[in-house]
Amino acid sequence: MSREEIHSFGDWLRRQRKARDWSQAALAQRVGCTAAMIRKIEAGERKPSAELAALLAEALAVPVESRTLFLQVARQLRPVAQLLSPRTMPILAGPYPALSTPANNLPAPLTSLVNRVHDAATVARLLTAADLRLLTLLGPPGIGKTRLAIHTAEQVATHFRDGVWFVDLAPLNDAALVLPAIAQVLAVAEAGATPLLERLRAVLMGKQLLFILDNCEQVSAAAPEIGALLRGCKGLKVLATSRTPLLLAGEHEYALPSLSLPPRDLVPTIAPAQLLTYEAVQLFVARVRQFQRDFAVSAANAPEIATICSRLDGLPLALELAAAALRHMTVSQLCTVLQSEGTWLHLLHSPARDLPARQRTLYQAIAWSYSLLDGNEQRIFRQLGVFVGGFTSAAVQAVCDAGPATLERLTEHNLLARRAERWQMLEMIREFALAHLSSAEHSMVRQKHIAYFAAQADQTLAVSLAAIAQDHDNFRAALTAAIAAQDADAAFTLCIKLVWFWELRGHLRDGVRFVRAALALPAITQSQLRFDLLERMATLAFQVHQFDVATEFATELHTLAYKHNDPFDMARLLNLQGRILIEQGELARAAVVLQENEQIARRIPHRFNPGCPLAQLGEIALMHGDWQNAERQLREALALLTGAAGTLYTGIFVAMTYTDLAELALVHGDPLQARYALQQVAPYAHQYVRRLHCFLVTLVGLLLTPLPTTPTAKTHAAAMFLGAMAGLGERTGDTLSPFHQWLIAERTAHVQWLLPPHDWHTAWQQGHAWLPAQAAEAVEQWLMGDVI
Questions:
Q1: I need a surface site. Which of 357, 487, 531, 617 has the fewest CB within 10 A?
Q2: HSE of 182 in the Cβ direction (CA atoms, 13 Å)?
């Protein structure tokens, strides 16, 4: 096709693609769309979206200064002829033969690069920027630095008329050998008295080349010579891969992230189609299919595949080695191995004989970086393995006796990653660190870890749920260790603070398991502390409808309450027993217990708010269809609850009361009053998963009032919220009362009657994938806007 025959952007794109010897599928992979979309754009049947046009510009390495013009032509806002002008598009305009790949010695990978579309496009843009001479790809072992460097070099090769040259520095352990390695690739002889640096400068003078210096970390002392080479050769650019920066003037750094992963809270219930949208899963599945052609993600194995990818932190090398492990074990077996705390690093290895030793096992990949640390850095690195999910500088100072300087040094080696004021260690690196702790060292650092987080529980947990969430993994690890060590004081201290977090954020199953284990420890003499923990334990248990467990601990509470002879403890016990009976559907028995609770509470309103039992009595009346008594009791309860000093406990009952008043308003056909009541609940729904769960039930009722006869936006929203309810219940274990279950079933039937099956399934699946924060945000948009 001659230039005169280019009449459209599609014609131009086809010519650019073919000049690079790319298929439509290859270009589609680079920009994250389908080959069919590329075909339609080239045929003039579709124009790219603004986002896709930007990705095409990245893939074609369009100069930054020409991006605006390119996007306007792609969107048919300017004529394609402007892309053919050397003045406006000097690199891409032609003549077309210039797009043929210059000389190079790039390795030819035997596997495809899965995803990395954004990273590849960004690195290509940086390498073709006029003011960038040195770019270092940084990341921990196994992140895929070399693979991305080779892929990107292939994309930008046409910008370097004198070639792209790959220099493998991994075999070297002496910085003095770096320049000879470069010279060997360029076939520059070292003979004569002229220093090699000067000979290289003379050879490279006036040329346009790109060097890929791969694995620079162990020969970083050669960085000044690399800088001198760059200063003496204006047309030279360097793309380095390293676990540590070269620390040269003018160096640009690009920290390569892990592949995208599903959120951890979504893992247990994730659907196969949704799972396959994440990069880590795409890579894992692609590598397994190299030897199991029929391997597929199914509803049965999706949670296990998600767990495997998450456990390996989305690291490409780890995922590839894990995929290879499926030659001799099942997905379930691999998932079990990775979830055990022990040195599973040796178990993941590649059978490929042509890989470097450091890439055949995860252990060897990390050992390469560990060997570059000095003795003190190795000690601190090992001890940091005790932390789970991240840590602060203050925690490291207390547990490992190390300051920020050492953390920064380990971060430079990419053995740690810094996130604002916190550091984090990838799971496979943490496994390596733990494996290198001696038994005595492990015991010592574990005790310090328990002591630190037990003290933190007293200081921060009651104050900020966000603070708990940030260090939740560490608190769980400290509690697990305290229980294993039979340290009842530390276990109780941690449990009594964490139990509220577990209830509010929906970690119900974890809470039941941990508190039950703590309560089984000997030598607990503080009966009041035990009473508090028993009450919270029974509360967690009834929410997951483990009524045998809830009753077992409520029985012990009953014994302690009578032993204490304290009306406050008796009121708490009766309130709990009443709730357990409501959750079991035993409404008559619950009413008797809660009436006694109300009588005691009215004698000590300064200690136990009588609005709590009264709110539940109003809910029982609502469940019985006794609207008049329900209205009276709920209104009186609300006055008592809001008229007293607000606490977390009373706040929960305020939210419960307003939700029940909203249901009552729906019974009376008053959607405005129901909406007002739900607006009062919204702040609590953001904080407390169970209140959100009940809130969603009532919101669906509001969306269906009055009951529509044809599908509307409200009907689709109701289907999404019903899916969100199901997802919340599955992930947290929260099971609502029989009354709420009846409401859910009735409202689900209405929505399914209104919506076509496909629309129902699509909307329900969308809501089912929401995490609690996403569901609460969606609620906010519907409830606080003008939609309802």
A1: 357
A2: 28
- Distance, CA of 111 to CA of 241 (rounded, Å): 20
Q: What is the CA radius of gyration of the chain?
A: 32
pLDDT of 323 over the 50 cut: yes
204 contacts 236 by C-beta, under 8 angstroms:
yes
3-state secondary structure of 461: helix
With left for phi above 0 and alpha for psi between -120 and 50, is residue 443 left, alpha or beta? alpha
3-state SS assignment for residue 561: helix
Compute the distance between CA of residue 735 and CA of residue 693 in angstroms, rounded to an integer.
9
Measured N-to-C along each axis, helices 738-754 and 713-732 cross at an angle, to the nearest 10 degrees, of 140
- How far is C-alpha 513 from the geometric centre of its chain's CA atoms? 25
Per-residue confidence at 614, pLDDT binned at 50, 70, 90?
very high
- Check whether the bond before 706 is cis (ω within 30° of 0): yes
| Helical segments of 233-301, H only | 272-275, 279-288
Q: Which residue has the higher pLDDT, 305 or 104?
A: 305
Decide: residue 296, CB within 10 A, 0-12 exposed, 13-18 middle, 19+ buried: exposed
The structure tokens listed for 449 are 């870890």
Q: How far apart are CA 303 and CA 322, in angstroms?
A: 16
pLDDT of amino acid 435: 87
CA trace torsion 461, 465, 466, 469 (10° rounding): 80
Task: Categorize the per-residue pLDDT at 523 as very low, low, confident or very high, splitting at 50, 70 and 90.
Answer: low
pLDDT band at 97 (very low <50, low <70, confident <90, very high): very low
User: Model confidence over 765-781: pLDDT tens digits?
Assistant: 999 989 898 999 898 88
DSSP code of residue 330: -
Beta pairing class for 251-255 and 134-138: parallel
Q: Between 572 and 99, whose confidence is greater?
A: 572
Do residues 673 and 757 touch, judged by C-beta distance below 8 A? no
Q: Which residue has the tokens 């609590």?
A: 684
Closest C-alpha among 301, 288, 365 to residue 333: 301
d(CA 784, CA 730) in angstroms, rounded, equals 27
Separation between Cα atoms, residue 421 and residue 525, nearest integer Å: 39
Query: Backbone phi, then psi, for 219, in 5-degree steps?
Result: -125, 35
- Copy the structure tokens of residue 62: 């369009």
Question: What's the burial of 353, exposed, middle or buried (CB within 10 Å: 0-12/13-18/19+)?
Answer: exposed
> What is the average pLDDT across 694-712?
93
